[in-house]
Structure prediction request, 168 residues.
Amino acid sequence: MKKYLLIGCSVLFFSCNDGDIQIETVDFDSIETIESCNDISSTTENVLFKINDDEALILNLPSELLKNEVSTTEIESLVPGSSQITYRIFSETVSSSYFCDSPPPLTPTVLEEIEAEAGSIFVTTTTEDNITYSHFIQLSGVTFLNENGSRITDLQVNDFGTVTTTVE
Prediction:
């Protein structure tokens, strides 16, 4: 009888649930293309996004962040604050038409949408001809917490990329 009691207790002890801890990776470093539905402008808010199959990383940048002037230092925008970073997971591969069509297509559907809880966006601006300006965008210290309160710990997107604006 003791043998069965010991086996029963062992099964209960070793079958504890660890809370389904999931450590996700947000990896957009290998994605070169930065997309936008409208022309990128220094005078309006800009929504930029990168798509990685069934995932998207979306940046909402305020109008004063991309300036048509050379920066001597990095310009910082805090998240949350005047800038916003959103990570979305879709039910299937997503395309730019999902973001740009009004209304958006019915599929794919958003499975999870996570807004950044903390971080910074840094922009460095250069020019070759005083007409076209290149804005190099970097992300730092970005923290995502999913609906369970779990932190997405591995954010692989330090260099978001470069976008250009022209003097209007």
User: Anything to note?
Assistant: The beta strands are 25-27, 46-52, 55-61, 75-79, 84-90, 110-127, 132-145, 151-152, 154-156, 159-166. Residues 11 and 112 are 35 Å apart (CA to CA). The helical segments are 2-14, 96-100. The longest strand covers residues 110-127.
